[in-house]
């Protein structure tokens, strides 16, 4: 990143959107405009763009294809997708192929500014990381990772244990569970900390591009190869190479990767000489690689090479204890960054956020808290500040478990499902106490089946 005003490229086929965004950003940033993905790519080649805001649906090269291409560039910009489809699913797809984050259209300018500020911060951190690799070596690589649940502390322990070996590590887990964060932590905790940490998102590139990115190519290796390019394996020499979305690589690339893992050497595309590197590999996937092996889509020998140490990152819904910590962490951070005096969440808000399933895991939680903070009017974040879709999802989740009470009051749109849940839990505890802990009797008293009681005991964590 340069020291001048950050440079933002806006790609959208609608003139009004382009101009509107330019109007909002031009005070603080240098802005370039493009009407489609192709023009956007051309501008990326000519200018050192820091952040791209791109529409998803455009004629010609659309937002996904643009992202795929841009993410594979030497110094890729941060890409924020602007999507009319605000589903987590679309966001996850875009982020899988290298986008940094997404915003739903119509774009909320507060959210946009916040996301840009955070993106620039990420770029600064990246620049610092490569400038001052030495200083990073002194920090505990796990400092920035929040969590105290048994599930996550087990991961911390595994990370500490394997960090300073040369073993290949396979990090598995759903999107947003922190695979990249842990990969960086492993690097920082290792004796390679003062050497490069190089990441590559395998899903963002087609087979040829990926191979040329990984191994580099010689001048003239293929049309457009105007000069020799050093691949990421070479760049990571002495350090760590992080291969994200490893489950997405083609059979041909699997073979080539296997060869490098076995021999530690390779040739640049179109090159004759053999290059030997000392690279520690960390791979990540949100797929079940073992199942892919069984299905014949992932090579078994490569799987075993990668899976020397397997660290599974638990989804957030399986470690609810970490949710309040993460809420607090992101609240403080965002409030500070936005100069907002917010002291915390109301207990009802925490209850809803704690009950939610978080399919997008920590990334989704972070985005949610950031949005809540930006929109907040009071000094405490209340149930009203919780995004509507989350409240609704939690409401549906909770009322779905209420259908065994023929005589229970129907959940109306105004009733707080959490209160109903709390009542139900109290009723069960009371019934059990009255029946001296006998579950069959308690079930009869509650007018529910023993099986339903059993399920509810599990659900409420009543022993
Ligand atoms: N335990 C944690 N503590 C603090 N922040 C976290 C934690 N886990 C994840 N995050 C944050 O959540 C976001 C997503 O994490 P990260 O990109 O590492 O996930 P990922 O599993 O690699 O996702 P993807 O599969 O989509 O690439 C990042 O902003 C990261 O800093």
Automatic annotation (TrEMBL):
Any keyword Ligase? Answer: no
Q: Which UniProt keywords apply?
A: Activator, ATP-binding, DNA-binding, Nucleotide-binding, Phosphoprotein, Transcription, Transcription regulation
CDD domains named in the record: AAA (cd00009), REC_YesN-like (cd17536)
Q: Name one GO biological process term.
A: regulation of DNA-templated transcription
Domain Sigma-54 factor interaction: residue ranges? 145-374
Q: Where is this region: Disordered?
A: 398-417
Stretches with biased composition (Low complexity): 408-417
Q: List, in alphabetical order, the Gene Ontology terms for molecular function in this entry.
A: ATP binding; sequence-specific DNA binding
Any single Pfam family the record assigns to this protein: HTH_8
* Keyword Membrane among UniProt keywords: no
Q: Which residues carry this modification: 4-aspartylphosphate?
A: 55
Occurrences of domain Response regulatory (ranges): 7-120
List, alphabetically, the Gene3D superfamilies matched: 1.10.8.60, 3.40.50.2300, Homeodomain-like, P-loop containing nucleotide triphosphate hydrolases
Query: What PANTHER family does the annotation carry?
Result: SIGMA FACTOR (PTHR32071:SF122), TRANSCRIPTIONAL REGULATORY PROTEIN (PTHR32071)
* Name used for this protein in its record: DNA-binding NtrC family response regulator
Which species does this protein come from?
Oligosphaera ethanolica
């Amino acid at each position: 990143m340069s020291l001048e005003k950050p440079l933002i490229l806006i790609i959208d086929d609608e003139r009004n959107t382009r101009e509107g965004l330019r109007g909002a950003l031009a005070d603080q940033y240098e802005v370039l405009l493009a009407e489609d993905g192709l023009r956007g790519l051309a501008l990326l080649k000519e200018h050192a763009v820091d952040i791209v805001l791109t529409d998803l649906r455009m004629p010609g090269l659309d937002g996904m294809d643009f992202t795929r291409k841009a993410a594979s560039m030497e110094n890729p910009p941060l890409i924020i997708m602007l999507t009319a489809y605000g589903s987590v699913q679309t966001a996850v797809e875009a982020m899988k192929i290298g986008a940094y984050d997404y915003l739903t259209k119509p774009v909320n300018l507060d959210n946009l500014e916040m996301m840009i500020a955070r993106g620039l911060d990420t770029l600064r951190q990246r620049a610092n990381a490569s400038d001052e690799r030495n200083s990073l070596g002194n920090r505990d690589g796990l400092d920035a990772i929040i969590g105290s649940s048994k599930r996550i502390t087990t991961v911390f322990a595994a990370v500490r244990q394997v960090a300073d070996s040369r073993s290949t590590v396979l990090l598995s887990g759903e999107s947003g569970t922190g695979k990249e964060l842990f990969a960086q932590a492993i690097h920082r905790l290792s004796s390679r900390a003062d050497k490069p940490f190089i990441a590559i998102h395998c899903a963002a590139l087609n087979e040829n591009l990926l191979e040329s990115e990984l191994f580099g190519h010689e001048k003239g290796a293929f049309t457009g190869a105007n000069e020799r390019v050093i691949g990421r394996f070479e760049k990571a020499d002495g350090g760590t190479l992080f291969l994200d979305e490893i489950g997405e690589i083609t059979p041909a690339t699997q073979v080539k990767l296997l060869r490098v893992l076995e021999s530690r050497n390779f040739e640049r595309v179109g090159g004759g000489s053999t290059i030997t590197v000392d690279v520690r590999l960390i791979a990540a996937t949100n797929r079940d690689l073992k199942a892919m092996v069984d299905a014949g889509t992932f090579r078994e020998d490569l799987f075993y090479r990668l899976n020397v140490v397997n660290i599974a990152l638990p989804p957030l819904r399986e470690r609810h204890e970490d949710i309040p910590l993460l809420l607090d962490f992101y609240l403080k951070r965002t409030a500070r960054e936005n100069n907002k005096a917010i002291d915390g969440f109301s207990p009802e808000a925490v209850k809803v956020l704690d009950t939610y399933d978080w399919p997008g895991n920590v990334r989704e939680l972070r985005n949610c808290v950031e949005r809540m903070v930006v929109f907040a009017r009071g000094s405490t974040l209340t149930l009203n500040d919780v995004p509507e879709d989350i409240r609704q999802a939690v409401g549906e989740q909770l009322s779905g478990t209420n259908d065994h009470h023929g005589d229970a009051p129907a959940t109306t749109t105004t009733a707080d499902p959490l209160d109903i849940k709390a009542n139900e839990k109290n009723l069960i505890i009371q019934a059990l106490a009255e029946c001296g802990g006998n579950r069959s009797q308690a079930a009869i008293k509650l007018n529910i089946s023993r099986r339903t009681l059993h399920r509810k005991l599990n659900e409420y964590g009543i022993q």
